């Protein structure tokens, strides 16, 4: 027999360890950027590790949260995609603006475009997963 309280406490401990590890990685990346410059940040394997960690965490969180979020329905289809596109462009613009301080304009705009595209793909994927989940519930 398993005690669900112990399982929940274990999950909370894992979440805390993940948070501490991610905060430490971000701190090390920040220190490296301040002491060695932005060029050293791009060459750091910690940045790749952090990127993969965030990607995996986001995908697994997305799978769980898709089941919990109510979908707006197809009547707001265009509005929701327009909102996703505008938000992606805003986030990409912010990244490009910040990148202008550390890199040439072409690289900063390229990085902002990549961030915008990644955000759009994740948001559109989340919307698609919610729609698919709703259709599965309606079929049952």
Architecture overview:
The chain is mostly helical and 140 residues long. The chain folds into 2 domains: 1-59; 69-140. It has 5 helices and no strands. It has helices at 4-36, 38-43, 45-66, 77-99, 105-139. The longest helix has 35 residues, at 105-139. The chain crosses the membrane at residues 12-31, 46-69, 81-102, 108-126. Keywords: Membrane, Transmembrane, Transmembrane helix.
- Our count of helices gives 5
The level of helicity is over 70%
pLDDT averaged over residues: 77
From the alpha-carbon coordinates, what is the Rg to the nearest angstrom?
19 Å
Question: What spatial form do the alpha-carbon principal axes imply?
Answer: flat
Number of strands: 0
* Terminal-residue CA separation: 32 Å
- Helix-strand string: HHHHH
Low-confidence stretches: none
Beta content: under 5%
Largest sheet: none
Query: Please, how many domains?
Result: 2
- Which structural category fits the helices and strands? mainly alpha
């Amino acid at each position: 027999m398993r005690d669900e309280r112990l399982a929940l406490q274990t999950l909370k401990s894992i979440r805390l360890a993940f948070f501490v590890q991610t905060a430490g990685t971000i701190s090390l990346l920040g220190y490296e950027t301040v002491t060695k410059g932005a060029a050293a940040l791009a060459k750091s394997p910690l940045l790749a590790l952090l990127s993969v960690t965030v990607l995996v965490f986001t995908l697994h969180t997305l799978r769980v949260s898709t089941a919990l979020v109510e979908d707006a329905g197809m009547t707001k289809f265009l509005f929701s995609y327009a909102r996703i596109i505008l938000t992606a462009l805003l986030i990409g613009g912010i990244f490009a603006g910040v990148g202008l301080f550390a890199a040439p304009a072409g690289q900063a705009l390229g990085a902002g475009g990549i961030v915008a595209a990644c955000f759009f793909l994740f948001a559109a994927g989340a919307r698609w997963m919610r729609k698919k989940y709703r259709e599965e519930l309606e079929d049952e």
